[in-house]
């Protein structure tokens, strides 16, 4: 039978398998971390799995996000992941949310699950997960990667410390795997370890990494386990004030020019200086009158591709001859 | 007295090493050691960097001979 090899373990057994079947887990971000976490939990027979991701599969995802194939390029990550995971195990119930996690949906979504897995790649969402987990009293499994290093911990588990206890202050240097580079195995290992922490919590087996920060270095092979102290004031602050949004911001290099940022509001880094009109592409059609026609406007997005389409379209159809595309995207116009 | 300092994430890149043995005046606190290394390696956003002394995340202690101090920056890749 399907689960025979794990039921043989003393830590699982028939009662443990029943616990897994009755458990539900939400994975925030179906990328480098989320793919291996999802595969392992579905294989193990978790009862219900939620997948939230607004992103689409791109070619540079394929070396580490092993749920996806070349045929999936351009498709919704959450939807593709669901169909592939159902092929692995049709007994698992899988919910899909093709939207970003936000201050508006986080608490309602988290209420529906027992445990949350952080598969995200930015500080804003990690603090959002942290705060929403405190408010909904759910444990969450954290992982982060910088090049060949990883951090792993379980937060908000049985009155344990939170992410704000570890890092009460964040940094503006939000560096993604896309920017620094990463071996596919690194998120593969971290995401699999996240799934292991979930299994331990559900089965009541072993030592859950609560109050501990595990540091992994893929190259040196040297791991460390540090003790995290609880900062009660950081947790009470969230209980009293609700979610405190964290925004990673940056400054524009040339503050004399007028810019138009057409990125959606969840895209980072946010620009907080200079003259920048922020009109997300999804709202652009209804807000065209906000764009001046008399002076030069530099239009940017993340990479320069969407902004080029916008500039071409607005020139051709609405006589915006004052628009210039920022080739190379936001990184080319900010400091640092 | 001598203390072992370990660097993680981008701090290891700024320092050009993952570990070093430092001679510091006796009575040096963890925060004083942090200030010194922040200036030496021009570490960005020092208030976000957490220290672990002998595997315990705690900035507020006085250091002793042979202590191990880890410098941990937050990072968020995934």
UniProtKB/TrEMBL annotation, chain A:
Superkingdom in the source lineage: Bacteria
Molecular functions per Gene Ontology: nucleotidyltransferase activity; sulfotransferase activity; thiosulfate-cyanide sulfurtransferase activity; ubiquitin-like modifier activating enzyme activity
Entries under InterPro entries matching the protein: Rhodanese-like_dom (IPR001763), Rhodanese-like_dom_sf (IPR036873), ThiF/MoeB/HesA (IPR045886), ThiF_NAD_FAD-bd (IPR000594), Ubiquitin-activating_enz (IPR035985)
Pfam families to which the protein is assigned, alphabetical: Rhodanese, ThiF
Keywords annotated in UniProt: Nucleotidyltransferase, Transferase
Organism: Christiangramia gaetbulicola
A GO cellular component entry from the record: cytosol
Positions of the Rhodanese domain: 279-335
Coiled coil segments of this chain: none
Nucleotidyltransferase listed as a keyword: yes
Protein name per the record: Adenylyltransferase/sulfurtransferase
TrEMBL record, chain B:
Molecular function terms from GO: nucleotide binding
CDD domains found in the cross-reference section: Ubl_MoaD (cd00754)
InterPro entries on file: Beta-grasp_dom_sf (IPR012675), MOCS2A (IPR044672), Mopterin_synth/thiamin_S_b (IPR016155), ThiS/MoaD-like (IPR003749)
Pfam families documented for this protein: ThiS
GO CC terms in record: molybdopterin adenylyltransferase complex
Keyword hit for Nucleotide-binding: yes
Any one GO biological process: Mo-molybdopterin cofactor biosynthetic process
Keywords of the record: Nucleotide-binding
Family stated for the protein in its record: Belongs to the MoaD family.
Name of the molecule in the record: Molybdopterin synthase sulfur carrier subunit
